[in-house]
Amino acid sequence: MTVEIDGRPVDVAVKISKRATSFRLSLPASGPVLTLPERARWADGEAFLMRHRNWLAARLPRTTRSMRLEPGMEVPLRGVPHLVVGTGNLRGRVEILALADLPELRVPGSPEHQPRRLFDWLKAEALNDLSERSAVHAARLGVTVKDIKLRSQSSRWGSCSSTGSINYNWRLILAPPFVLDYVAAHEVAHLVEMNHSDAFWATVKRTLPDMERGRAWLKAHGRQLMAWEPPGNSG
Question: pTM of the entire structure?
């Protein structure tokens, strides 16, 4: 069997066991193994593997390399791949060139400054989108967002304080808009419920009925998104 983890296929060996009474996923040195009872249905085994792929992803050696914001890379702006191209001009601003096959992000500045130019532009785009969606959810829930800042957390998409300040991960601008919208709804909902109780999740759903779509996307692709590094970070 093959399962996709962090955008790459991972082969999982299948073992049929007369002794097994239930499905079991293990990770010996030789690689992932899915053990099936002798009379188990293949479709049930596949479903079990899909339900436990996050467990497997957390235990596999991390092979996702750091991704750099530099010319020649394909950066997923709002979930759509864009080729980063240096313009050769020392001045100007980052511009989007809409091409049929692969849109481009055209970045000015000398080669050593282009990654920082692109990073600053992406942060500005993220702040704009997140401010807009936060305001929408705040209005729906009757709360006030006092301050929004962007961070480069390596494991969190956002955080919210009881004072109304919200921190967001800049990488959200790389994800599809419905993902950014979910995180905004999640953090604003904390201004109503500062916990992860059933009441909290009901609050998120009240302002974003389709919350599960963004939540599921992050579970499936979040590690890939975290691989993008701001300029100056080592891999």
Answer: 0.73
